[in-house]
Design goal:
Blueprint (H helix, E strand, L loop, with lengths): L20 E7 L19 E5 L3 E5 L7 E2 L11 E5 L4 E5 L6 E3 L2 E2 L6 E2 L5 E4 L3 E7 L7
Parallel strand pairs: 3-4
Antiparallel strand pairs: 1-2, 1-11, 3-5, 5-6, 6-9, 7-8, 7-10, 10-11
Length: about 140
């Protein structure tokens, strides 16, 4: 009697999806009058981003970024990255010229700082992102 060998090809494992993170992009207008302030951007409107990928890049390089920041000359092309760490969101600076701060504290080297609701991520001269938390889950 011949034996058939069954081979099972499991599909490639997929990473669990990251929960959505809500960020509010704004300009810190209190910095406009500081010595050495660059001209403020022409568009001061707040923008909301809902992020649901494992890695989100922030910077001034148009086209290839998830969160483009316009009008702040102190923002690097690829300034910072927000990453899903499996159980929490974090942020790291990507070697930007002017650094990234969370609640006024600069990130050092390749440090990843975990984010919490209401944290303020400061980038460039007057650009900031405020963590608004996770959207409420739909009732089941």
């Amino acid at each position: 009697m011949a034996h058939a060998t069954l081979t099972h090809s499991p599909s490639a494992p997929t990473a669990p999806s990251a929960p959505s993170l809500v960020l509010l992009a704004s300009v810190n207008a209190r910095r406009f009058d500081e010595p050495g302030s660059p001209p403020p951007p022409s568009d001061l409107a707040e923008r909301t981003f809902i992020l649901d990928r494992h890695s989100i890049v922030i910077g001034r390089e148009a086209g290839s970024l998830d969160i483009p920041i316009h009008g702040d000359p102190y923002i690097s092309r690829r300034h910072a990255e927000i990453v899903w760490m499996g159980s929490a969101w974090g942020i790291r600076d990507l070697g930007s010229t002017n650094g990234t701060r969370v609640n006024g504290v600069p990130l050092e080297g390749s440090e990843v700082k975990l984010l919490s609701p209401d944290d303020v991520i400061e980038l460039g001269f007057f650009s900031q992102l405020t963590v608004r938390g996770l959207p409420a889950e739909a009732p089941t």
